[in-house]
Prior knowledge:
alpha/beta, 7-stranded mixed β-sheet
Amino acid sequence: MIQFKRLDHILISIPKGKITEARAFYNEILGLEEIPGQHPGGAIWFRLADIQLHVREEAGGNFSKRHPAFEITNLDEAKMELAAKGIDISYSSEIEDRQRFFFRDPFGNRFELLQFID
Length: 118
């Protein structure tokens, strides 16, 4: 079984060319602290209580990259279990200090499972 620990982050999409507006809204209007760095896909990251909000430009379409990311304690076992059940596993860019993979449910919703590296 997958051993879920907590919700780590949520990635939401914004239209292309709207990063400046998004930064102003989430930082200045909502008061979220931006997490500095060069993040995958040009995303901007914010602290939101004990999780992160990732904001990324996306053209749209049927297979959005929007997703919740769950921290788990047994990433390799989870990957094998899902693959054994016929679930397609996909990967994305690497993020420092964590390993991760993605899958979609039968309805096209994208999920990320991740585990921090000690």
